[in-house]
Amino acid sequence: MNHLDATHDPALRSWVASANDGATDFPIQNLPYARARRAGTEEPWRIMVAIGDQALDLAAAVLAAEHTDAQAAALAPLVRGDLNAFMARGPADWQLVRESLSRALTMGSPAEVALAPCLIAQSALEFALPCTIGDYTDFYTGIHHATTVGKLFRPDNPLLPNYQWVPIGYHGRASSIGVSGQTVRRPMGQTLPPGSTVPQFGPCKRLDFELELGLIVGTGNALGEPVSIDQAESHLFGVVLLNDWSARDVQAWEYQPLGPFLSKNFATTISPWVVTMAALVPFRVPFTRPAGDPQPLPYLDNAANRAAGAIDIALEVQIETAAMAHAGQPPVTLSASRWPDAAYWTAAQLVAHHTVGGCNLQPGDLLGTGTLSGPAPEQAGSLLELSMGGKTPVTLPNGEQRTFLADGDRVVLRGRCAVAGAVGIGFGECSGRIAG
Ligand code: MN
């Protein structure tokens, strides 16, 4: 799966004209999956594939075209709107469908006549979560985030000694994961006012975002049967943008001794389009460790991971305040980073570590990377870091200031891959607005 093939050919063009615009996130080399329907209708949710500014409705498209038996079997779960069942079928079927879609959408394909009526403008869609997410784990692989936040919470001991050895994570809450476009209610909770020994109860005053990626598990493993690092990538279906909304004041009071709890479980937002691991192949880069750092233990190390275990995704956080929205001003960039600059562990290492004790993953499980802050302070993936623990407000171009999120703020995450010799692809957006 992890090699370039005809579906990545930069010369490929689509008969869907908007897919050939160099700025689109969704050229024919991408082909991400979402679950969607026409906005404002009660139509059933269907699996769709993005192509330019359009979406191909697979339930309609499969009916409109002829297939081999193998294609029909692979496509059947997609026709039913069940991405989990499609993912469970494994990489051979994922590749079969990717190749079929690529051929059908290529300029000059005889399928154009049948498939053109199965396109819906993405602007006319509303989205559901792309799949059923049974379990959600959030890791803490952003070493610059961990160091900066560690300094704020524990000035004497910022990065705990296990960090260079263990991919740190916690089991999160799957029920409160929502899809881009959602409104998030400011949570209530317990916080400890500065200088006090008695907590107070009330609305969170330090509401924050976290810029993360989410890995979608494709095929699971049986309980008690770890996934080796050699096999880890073949269990991953794709990647989404993920905003791990965080109540920092609640977090500071509750996080010891067992880690985050209510400070994280009120909402998590992901982008609707799942960009497949196959689409990300051209953007692979080596996994490296800073000189002097220990190398991973053998169960977290292999040649393939060292050679190309990381994926170069450029990430960006934007904010649009209520005043900006009212004035018709577009969102502005708060920070930008890149996955390989931010992360201490790769996707394969997270899968290998998660399962090494025998934990079973299932199709649709979501693994968050943790906040992907770059090495420079202005590349931080949270307001906690950008405002240095709330001490230094961030000033926006319209003069407004933020230490943490205000009611009415909308946060937009974006991701984009580009490298010489390949057509750039993107993730669309992951947006969420604080109610009020
Ligand atoms: Mn997080």
What order do the helices and strands come in, and which of them pair?
Blueprint: E1 33-38, E2 46-51, E3 54-57, H1 58-64, H2 69-79, H3 83-88, H4 91-105, H5 112-115, E4 119-121, E5 125-128, E6 136-139, H6 143-153, E7 169-171, E8 177-179, E9 182-184, E10 188-191, E11 200-203, E12 207-208, E13 211-217, H7 229-232, E14 236-243, E15 246-247, H8 248-254, E16 268-270, E17 275-276, E18 284-285, H9 303-308, E19 310-311, E20 314-320, H10 322-326, E21 332-338, H11 339-342, H12 347-355, E22 366-368, H13 383-386, E23 394-395, E24 401-402, E25 410-417, E26 425-434
Parallel strand pairs: 6-22, 8-16, 9-26
Antiparallel strand pairs: 1-2, 1-5, 2-3, 3-4, 6-7, 10-11, 12-15, 13-14, 13-22, 14-16, 14-17, 18-19, 20-21, 20-25, 23-24, 25-26
This protein binds manganese (II) ion.
Manganese (II) ion (MN) binds at residues 138, 210, 212, 244, 368, 370-371.
How would you describe this protein?
With 436 residues, the chain is of the alpha+beta class. The protein has two domains: 6-128, SH3 type barrels (Roll), CATH 2.30.30.230; 136-434, Fumarylacetoacetate hydrolase, domain 2. It contains 13 helices and 26 strands. Strands 6, 7, 8, 13, 14, 16, 17 and 22 form an eight-stranded mixed beta sheet that branches. The chain has a five-stranded antiparallel beta sheet with strand order 4-3-2-1-5. A five-stranded mixed beta sheet has the order 9-26-25-20-21. α1 packs antiparallel against α2 (69-79) and α2 (69-79) packs across α4. The longest helix is centred in the first third of the chain and has 15 residues, at 91-105. The radius of gyration is 22 Å and the shape is globular. The mean pLDDT is 97. It binds manganese (II) ion. Manganese (II) ion binds next to loops.
